[in-house]
Amino acid sequence: MAPRGVPGLVPVPPPVGVVDALPGEGTGLALTIDDGTSSEVVGAFARFAQDSGVRLTFFPNGRYASWEENAPLLRTLIESGQVAMGNHTWSHPDLTTLGDREVAEEIRRNQEFLSNVFGVRDSPFLRPPFGAHDERTDRIAADLGHPTIAMWNGTLEDFQVLTPEQLMAAARRWFAPQTIVVGHANQPSVTTVYGELLELIAERGLRTVTLADVWATPGQRVRGTTADGRLTTG
Question: Residue 148 and residue 160: Cα distance in Å, rounded?
Fold first, then answer.
């Protein structure tokens, strides 16, 4: 099945370097989900996408069995283009503390996992664990096929254990146009507020996009940007 993007949005070439917001003007909201320590939460996110049409970008660590346990549904969503994936390393180390060979091995091993489990072979995106990166790790990532370091400018704040109320307070703070929001598939609180998240997205007139809807993976049709930095549309 050929990937399908967002109507009216044509992806542009992925930049070399750091991105921490969606480009230009618009109503896009990129919900990006890291880690995957909980199979229950990974599965709940996949069903949330299936049931609601929400578009998600996952950054898995392949060491967690949760991803293979939920692979059948996730593969279907990836093939349709509703879900995209990027590299978050195999085991979630601080890359800046590793030598060059170890950095490359963490990235390569997770590339093999993404390819073998999900058929994802060409994602340009690397999200460094803890957001820790430098020129050296960025160069190694680019050499291995991940020129775009995917950071964020919004968060569900669920790197810690939150109540559903606290999580929704974070969503109300950070859900805004052209924001890349980071969340985690680790704690179950998020699985109890999907309806409230959808209501917030609708109330604010946002539309969810994957990072691959915005920045093309190899082989996708791409356009440039307008002079004022807006994405061109098809």
Answer: 26
Please state which architecture CATH assigns to domain 17-214: Alpha-Beta Barrel (3.20)
Helices (H), the chain: 39-52, 66-69, 71-80, 100-118, 135-143, 164-174, 194-203, 211-214
Q: Per DSSP, what are the bridge partners of residue 12?
A: 215
Give CA separation, 121 vs 105, 142, 144, in Å.
Answer: 16, 14, 11
Identify whether the C-beta of residue 149 lies closer than 8 Å to the C-beta of residue 133.
Answer: yes
The domain spans of the chain are 17-214
**pTM (2 decimals)?**
0.92
Buried b (16+ CB within 10 A) or exposed e, 198-220: bebbeeeebbbbbbbbbbbbeeb
What DSSP designation does 87 have?
Answer: B
Dump pLDDT digits (tens) for 157-203. Answer: 999 999 999 999 999 999 999 999 999 999 999 999 999 999 999 99
Does residue 21 contact residue 153 with C-beta atoms inside 8 Å? yes
Asked if 84 contacts 59 with a C-beta cutoff of 8 angstroms, the reply is no
CA atoms within 13 A of residue 204's CA, in its CB half-sphere: 21
